[in-house]
Amino acid sequence: MPYIPQPGYVMCQPLKKESKTASGLALPPSEQERGANIAEVLAVGGDLPDIKIGDVKPGDILAYAPYTDIEVEEGNFNKIVFVPFKKIVGIKSSVANESN
Question: Strand, coil or helix: what is 38?
């Protein structure tokens, strides 16, 4: 892993958003960017004195507020984002983590 998230951040791999509606209509780019961003957790930084990350683990899927992440381009198609703990709005535990 080329980067290690610092305390207060989660390192994630963004997941692609659907560019079509359920009925098959293509969404314009402005509509694709609305709402929370979705990403898979790769690594979790440590807690801060006033903020605890809780049960977020690698493999979980999280939603975070738009325009709050820090992007790092890795190669041609690999993008990594660092998301501050305070900007996470939802967490979906991975199947592997649910069995623990």
Answer: strand
